[in-house]
Fold this sequence. Notes:
The complex is a heterotrimer of chains A (267), B (483) and C (439). Chain A has 267 residues and is α/β, with parallel strands linked by helices. Chain A has helices at residues 3-6, 49-57, 81-86, 104-118, 126-140, 157-171, 187-200, 216-219, 239-248, 251-255, 257-260; strands at 11-20, 23-33, 38-42, 63-71, 74-75, 89-92, 99-103, 150-151, 175-179, 206-211, 224-229, 232-237. Chain A has one domain (3-259): Rossmann fold (3-Layer(aba) Sandwich). Chain B contains 12 helices and 23 strands. In chain B, helix 10 (430-438) crosses helix 11. Chain B has helices at 6-13, 36-45, 50-64, 105-113, 118-125, 143-148, 156-162, 164-170, 181-189, 430-438, 443-459, 464-481, and strands at 27-29, 88-90, 128-133, 136-140, 152-155, 194-198, 208-213, 224-229, 234-242, 249-252, 255-260, 265-273, 284-295, 301-308, 313-316, 319-322, 328-337, 342-351, 357-367, 371-380, 388-398, 403-412, 418-427. Chain B is of the alpha/beta class and 483 residues long. Chain B is globular, with a radius of gyration of 22 Å. Chain C is 25% helix and 36% strand. Chain C has helices at 2-18, 26-42, 76-81, 117-123, 125-134, 142-150, 384-392, 397-414, 419-436; strands at 89-94, 97-98, 112-116, 155-159, 169-174, 183-192, 197-205, 213-222, 227-235, 241-250, 255-262, 267-276, 282-291, 296-305, 311-320, 325-334, 342-351, 357-366, 372-380. A 10-stranded mixed beta sheet of chain C has the order 2-1-5-7-9-11-13-15-17-19, with helices on one face. Chain C has a 9-stranded mixed beta sheet with strand order 3-4-6-8-10-12-14-16-18. The radius of gyration of chain C is 21 Å and the shape is globular. The B-C interface holds B 71, 380, 382, 395, 397-427 and C 50, 336-337, 339, 349, 351-381. Strand 22 (403-412) of chain B pairs antiparallel with strand 18 (357-366) of chain C, so a sheet runs across the interface.
Amino acid sequence: MEKAEMGKTLLEIRNLRVSVDGKQILKGLSLSVRPGQVHAIMGPNGSGKSTLAHVLSGREGYDVTGGEISYCGKDLLALKAEDRAREGIFLAFQYPVEIPGVNNMYFLRTAVNAVRSHRGEAELDAMDFLSFAKAKMEKLGMNKNLTSRSVNEGFSGGEKKRNEVFQMSVLEPKLAILDETDSGLDIDALKTVAEGVNALRAPDRAFLVITHYQRLLDYIVPDVVHVLAGGQIVKSGDKNLALELEERGYEWVDRGETEAGKGRVQG
Amino acid sequence: MKIMTHDKIEELTKKEYKYGFHTNIESDSLGKGLTEETIRLISGKKNEPEFLLEWRLRAFEHWKTLSEPTWQYVKFNAVDYQDIVYYSAPKSQKDGPKSLNEVDPELRKMFDKLGISLHEQQRLTGVAVDAVVDSVSVATTFKEKLAEVGVIFCSFSEAVKRHPELVKKYLGTVVPYTDNFFAALNSAVFSDGSFVFIPKGVRCPMELSTYFRINAAETGQFERTLIVAEEDSYVSYLEGCTAPMRDENQLHAAVVELVAMDRAEIKYSTVQNWYPGDENGKGGIYNFVTKRGKCKGVASKISWTQVETGSAVTWKYPSVILQGDNSVGEFYSVALTNNCQQADTGTKMIHLGKNTRSTILSKGISAGRGQNAYRGLVKIQKNAAGARNYTQCDSLLLGDRCGAHTFPYIEAKNKTAQVEHEATTSKISDAQIFYCKQRGISEEDAVSMIVNGFCKDVFQKLPMEFAVEAQALLGVSLEGAVG
Amino acid sequence: MIASVQNKTLFSDAFRSGRALLPGEPWLQALRDSAIGCFEERGLPTRKDEEWRYLDLKTLGKTRYGTPAGKPEISESFAREHFLGGTLARFCFVDGKYDASLSDVDELPAGVELLSVAEAMNKNEVQLKEALEASDVDFRHPFVALNTAFLQDGYVLCLKKDVQLEKPVQILFLGSEASENCAEHSRHFLFLAEGAKAEVLECYVSPKAGNFLNNVVTEVALEKAAQLSLYRVQAEGGGCSHLNYSKVSVGESAHFESKVFSFGAGTSRNEIETELSGAHAVCSLEGLYIGGGDQCLDNRTVIDHRVADGKSREFYKGILGGNARGSFSGKILVEAGAQRTDSEQNNRNLLLSDDAEADSKPQLEIYADDVKCSHGATVGQLDADQIFYLRARGIGEGQARSLLTAAFAMDLVESVANADIREFLERHVNQKLAQEVGR
């Protein structure tokens, strides 16, 4: 990668190798994402999709055995999880975690202020934050009662995912990673979540949409689609690749793994 | 996959006690040791009436026949009861302050350090404060305003002088001196405390508050609080405690008695932050306290809320005797043990009257090498038809060197009773920590936030300004604990 | 206290005067002496002892117990009533002594040893000596001390590696009229080697309500991946005092299941101390105590998670009528390092009468942080909504109550896989319920 290009790249993953409990999951994955782009990562179960999301966001328990990740020109792997978040990486969890007794809005304000003080900005007081957050909620058509409840506690599957998108809209990340955000959602909830994400698309923000199924991509239309199989990106293409996958199944790419693995698209 | 390493826990556990200053106030103390003479001296210094001296002496005689309880789940060095100063009063207090302005400036500074400037308290919060330092009440604010509605709020000594008939009528009726070792000791040697009397039909117009502070070295604190709420009255009472850092253990053996008549309600809240000792368990307060309320009247209510973060050893079971039909008892507790702290705390709900109800909610947090035990008794006597109890005990363990224990006792003798006990034990999950970190929140803040969330149901029961203080205190003790 | 001191002398006297008649070689006599010494040091427990808080040793404290004299007489028909069908073997004891005529051990396969302790004293003395000396039951327990001092009989069940019994073994204890004012101290040993599997049903019954003491001590050791289901029906007459103490060690990946049905005896205490000493050990302790009249039924359990990855489940239920008092005291101990322990404990009580009492003392003592432990305890009545629902369907209130009470009790029986045992237990539960609730 040339220096000149670095400026244009938000996220650059090179030959990433990751193992969990001694088992190799990612076997030399490379990916390049520029601001404003939406990349979809598709792949069969166990291909390493969620591992990629967790490694990018700094979850412990993953051993990076090779390769490098540069984010905004920085060595991402050297940053702690909270610092990655403060630098604008947001992970929408596949299974958002319940934190009993901790108020949803209080939690989010703490997060926003942690990010703001990291950037050297003044912290928001409770009133300012509330009006700021309320505006975002209205935009997303969120149920107001989510403000008075504990973080994800007793939320339905749809509410949890919507809450993730709401947090994303409040935290205004540079790189949003959606880890199987469509799993467990009915079609109406899926549409609402997708609308929320689309509303957040911006020239300075990139998305990594991780999904097993093509249907989410009907609503969040990607610029690039990658197929992850056996710990590597084996095929990349435009949105039509997703449709093709839907039709022909993952076996199609699995079979062509070696050959297709060579042709990478840099978006 | 372990989020917190030992090192991390250790690093975070080393948070110092914030209230560990010591104030140079001249004290008027008796020598060490306990004999009949000591008791006569204490009583004499306070110009007590004969009945009280006799009562003290009977308590002392009884105490000599008792030995320390051994059933509790704590270990501590034997207390040498002859090596304790049983009376210590800030010297300038001898004649008692007439107003706040007369309070020793050093003492005032001490309260400022505690963040409870009496002036501020008075001006901003409208909370009436009684402050007890080393066993003696030094200032009671807002006395006049309370007097207008007939509320008596004064030091115990003053109550003995001005309202001996009330003291005589109620003293020892809820916690007799025969109750236990420490209650007997307190009855013999108590030097001061607070007294509250709410007359019929009066809703006390403000929160009443007492701050306790042990200042002098080698001194035991033995205060006694008595609150009587007559028919249809209401009072909310707050109690806060701190002590300086000292290498030796200091004994605090208080007694609190509450009496609620028909339809009266007493809400008693405690934020206990006695010096817990250092990280190796050196020093700290032995907090051996007997607190009990009697719901004497029909439909009366007594509610205990406690946040226990201090003391080297805590031994405390604020209890309610539900004597009046339809009376209600409540116990809400947060107890945190860090470093080498030990707590054996809980409650007793004794249901005597019909349709009596009690609720127990206990949240125990163990960190460092702390040992935290909930011990509770729910007793439904034969005549307590329709009695109900619900108990929930939750324990949170931070680190693998601490302990969390639950010892509930249920004894039901009425077939229409319904008693339910539930307990859980958990730790903060790695997933919760990661979720917070992924939102930019530091590990320390995340733990503090999750622990506060764990305690939320109890904090909600505290008066607003106390809740804020309790949260902050938990934060401080926890920054210590895990981050 | 006085009763205790008195009784201490009563037991000591009985020991001294009967010592010469107690069987065994010098090593056993020495063990007896040491045990009675330990007992004399502490005497009988009183209700001031925390662990004995809910047990009233009433008649036990006042009786001078002798050893059964004369020929025990038990009607064969009474014995037969309690035979379990479909067994692999049946081992019978009358007044604490093995009775070959009522037993049936012909079908036992290779690799299984089932014999009486009296026989072991002769035939397998070395092993018995080893077992007794290696025993980690604690003489500070007064009834364990007495049991050892007076030890005469009991049973030994040993399964060799990978021996899996397809049918249950029944052990039947019959108390005859000759046992009036006598004490029976039985000692049992169950050893299951690696991969072995067995189902055992113990029954304690007596035709009359005479006063006698049944003092049982059991030691169970399960090696790696061994599985034992131990069912106990304790249903002697009202004059009996039944004390039963078991010490169980569960090895790696071994599985111990216990179901205790305490219905009989005026005073009873069923105690099980379980150690999960190997990784992935599992234990399940269940109990049903139903009492009426002046019965006092005490249950105590300890589950000690010594190592990581253990799992325990505990569920005790009480139904109490008349003047009866039932109690449950259960401790779950999770030792330091016993991470990933998964433990649940539950005790539910139903009070049927104005004078009955239920006491519950569930306890958690936890020294490891990565654990899943919970417990619950309730005392209450039948659900009013459920009663109303049944009445609204035309069922009379009395019948509705007995129906729901039976449902409350039968939980524990329904989960028994072996149909013969299930029917046997059902019969006992129904009998006891009919007595106390009326069906």
